[in-house]
Structure formats: C-alpha cells, structure tokens
C-alpha cells in the first residue's frame, strides 16, 4: 500500500468525495487533500472579500452578497446529484448575475486554476424563479455541480453525458453529449446555414446551383456528432453492464468517477474478483480516486451519505 496515507484516512477521503470534492485522475491522497485545502481557502477568501468590501470581481463579473445563490438551491441540486452519483456539493459559492450574459444563457461553472477557485454562475432570472425558458434551476445547478465534481479528471469526452443525466428531458439525457466543445455547435449549425444560403441564392438568382454537396454536408456533420455520442454512450453502457455482472446494483457512481480509458478496461472485466483486483491495484498504487471508489462503493462499508440518511 502506498504510504502517503494510512488505511484509517480513507474515511476522510470518502467524506470529501461525498461532499462533492472528487479526486483527480492522477492525484494521490496527499495531493487531493492539499487541493481541497486550497479550494476551501479560495472560497473563504472570496467570502471575506464580499463581507469586507460588499463586492468582489472574479471572472470578469462583479459578485455581491445580494446575488448569492441561497443554500436551498444547492440542496435542491444535491437531491439530484446524490440520487445519481452519491455526492452533495454544499460548499461551492454560487451567484445569480444579470450583466455580460447571452440571451439564452442559463448558467455555467467557472474555474480559476491559479487559486483553485470554482464558482457557480446562474442567470439572474433564477434569483426568485425556479424555471426560465427550458431551464429548471435545480437541474441546471445539478448539471454544473457534476462538472465541478469531475473537473479534475480532465476528461471531456463524457463530461456532458454525465452532467445531462441530471435533466428531466429524456432527449437531452440522450443527446446532450453530442455537444462537448464550442466547435460542435458550429459544426451542427454552419452546414445547415450554408444549405439555406445556397438554396436562397439559387431561388433569388434564378440559376440552378448544385445543392447536393450542401445537403450531404448538412447531414454528415450532425451524423458524425450522433455517431460519436453513440460510441461514447456505448462505452458507458458496457462498463455498467460489467459492474452489474460483478454484483454492483447501482454502477452510476463508479462510472461517474472513471476516465474513458478506465471505462473501457472495466467493460472487459469478467467478474467481481477481477473488479476487486482492478480497483485494488490502482488504490494500492496510490490513487486517491480508487481508494475512495473501493471504500465507498466496493467494500460494503456504509459511506457517510448512507449513514446520515439512516440516522436522520
């Protein structure tokens, strides 16, 4: 076993994980604990600045105590994330902002790597409303808190898949991972706009333009996004099936904490003994993340969230 923490300290790692502070892809326990300390220090610094000055500027926006997201919103979001992935993030500061936002923008998680600061930003409409257009405040907050939990995995290919599972819309749960980069939205829209432009130019000029290449491009770009999404979802589905074969009734919390490469490896595991050996080798090599997974989801021990429910 890696000596950076004793076995008794696994409970501390598990408690942090349950609080939404999830370990990164390559972090050992000491690195994970140090980063959590820096994050909490950054949040305390922001709180102190707000209390002393009445405002703080971060990420190009002005934050004030009046626009602070209340604890009830985080609790609403926590009901979703706990049910899906067994964590509740109550510490990340959130703010509802009115300036410098787009017409259809609902919210986002922003991070500053230099100070390990993460902040949840929501549209100002959610200050006193639970719904706006097609957004629901609790689902939007849960979506962004999933990003906060997985941020240190450095894994973009399935980021939106796991975040969109918090949505009540089956279609968004199914297709949300099509758009994992800003370029994907342009790839979806531009071919269709080019087709519309070419068709309009042909109609206005009275000349026959060859529209077939535009039609092919308009179908090919969305098709590629759909195929990529289906392949990624297939990896998750096969890994989940392998975990169920190994006796894990609810595999989603484990899947959520894995990289794409690990999901592919898990999908090939034949039984519980192989799963335990897989998790144990990574935990014993010093991975804080796999120590947490083994403690919370593979050991049969009651984790802090379950104990809190039982004692309530």
Structural notes for this entry:
There is one protein chain. This protein has 312 residues and is mainly alpha-helical. It has one domain (7-311). Helix content is 57%, strand content 9%. The chain contains 13 helices and 7 strands. The strands form 3 sheets. It has a 3-stranded mixed beta sheet. The protein is flat, with a radius of gyration of 22 Å.
* Percent of residues in beta strands: 5-15%
List the helices and strands in order.
Answer: HHEEHEEEEEHHHHHHHHHH
Name the helicity range.
55-70%
Shape: flat
Stretches with pLDDT under 50, minimum 5 residues: 302-307
Question: For the residues shown, what is the average pLDDT?
Answer: 88
Strand order of the largest sheet: 3-5-4
The number of E-state strands comes to 7
**Major beta sheet summary:** 3 strands, mixed
- Spatial gap, N to C terminus: 35 Å
Helix and strand arrangement:
Layout: H1 10-18, H2 29-53, E1 56-58, E2 61-63, H3 71-85, E3 94-97, E4 107-112, E5 117-123, E6 131-132, E7 135-136, H4 137-150, H5 159-164, H6 170-175, H7 182-205, H8 212-245, H9 252-256, H10 260-267, H11 272-284, H12 288-298, H13 304-311
Parallel strand pairs: 3-5
Antiparallel strand pairs: 1-2, 4-5, 6-7
Give a concise summary.
The chain is mainly α and 312 residues long. Helix content is 57%, strand content 9%.
Which key phrases capture this entry?
3-stranded mixed sheet, 9% strand, two-stranded antiparallel sheet, mainly alpha
